Amino acid sequence: MDPAIRLRGLHKRFGDTIAVADLDLDIAEGEFFSMLGPSGSGKTTVLRIIAGFEQPTSGSVALFGRDVTALAPFARPVNTVFQDYALFPHLSVIANVEYGLRVAGVARKERRAKAEEALASVRLAGFEDRRPHELSGGQRQRVALARAIVLRPQALLLDEPLGALDLKLREQMQVELKELQRSLGITFVFVTHDQDEALTLSDRVAVFDAGQVVQLGTPREVYDHPRNPFIASFVGSSTLLEPDVAARFGLPAVATAVRPERVTLDGADGGVPGTIAEVIYTGPEHRIVIDLDDVGARITALEPNIGAGRRRSRGDRVTVSIDPAAAAPLESDASAA
Ligand code: ATP
Questions:
Q1: How many A from CA of 286 to the centre of ligand 1?
Q2: Contact 161/201 with Cβ under 8 angstroms?
Q3: In 10 A of CB 40, how many CB atoms?
Q4: Model's pTM, two decimal places?
Q5: Is 133 found in the same domain as 55?
Q6: SS3 for 273?
Q7: Do 114 and 216 have their domain in common?
Q8: What was the pLDDT predicted at 331?
Q9: Which CATH number do you get for residue 101?
């Protein structure tokens, strides 16, 4: 089966800036695929090239087996949801959702039925006659989603769609997006700089840095086996151990990333001694920073807040150990260090 989206040799230059550098990427049908990266890493440009709003300097875009590189956005079987919703302020909710169908010449009755159905699928039945300014941010974003899915695209492109929402609403919308994708069964391509969001939602994640995909995999692969120091620190938090420090923990003597939740304090089999420099209370857990003896390095550990039990304090002496299976040796990559 042809992939939903196939990018080959994609390259995009804006003046002196190389926004996308020779990218090859296949996104499967029905996949929830995220493009994750810091600001300026090129992910929005890739999305806009897929949608047809931007022409690549070189390379090709194929959608469902058909080369669309030269086609206009409206001729492509995809739709885009933007961060700022881009709703028409003077039109009612239902008129906003119907808009694309009206442009496509769909008859009034059919158009209304389809728009009602799309609104119901984003849980906005009953809001037909409101104007956008009479809705909350989350409701506006759902109208934008309804407007995109009413056209039955084969793939939905989402550019930081939850970026304008506060944390609580964002978490709620994440669940709804995932459910929507499952019920529609279509490909979602999701651009975000929020690693939690990418890990929570995606079947696969592409991590972008400087116009290139530096790692591609399932959320678990990317989180548990980050390839280089950039990914280890951008996706989740890690302590980066120099080769000699890794060796002190009985690990291979190479640069290694260690997730704080995989660091054990006062384990049964000893470990590297150190002194607690800081205890940070985050609610569900304690983040504990330890100065290691001898090696002149710091490491961070996480312990769940289980209420009763030992309280750690600054200045406490502890031993620190790392399960070798939980440490991620990094590829040496000078440019990403
Ligand atoms: P963000 O999360 O901030 O949206 P991004 O990863 O999506 O960032 P892009 O918007 O794709 O990054 O930008 C990649 C690079 O291309 C940046 O250096 C940006 O300044 C540049 N760029 C993007 N669009 C244009 C444009 N229309 N003209 C000139 N430079 C651009």
A1: 37
A2: no
A3: 15
A4: 0.87
A5: yes
A6: strand
A7: yes
A8: 81
A9: 3.40.50.300
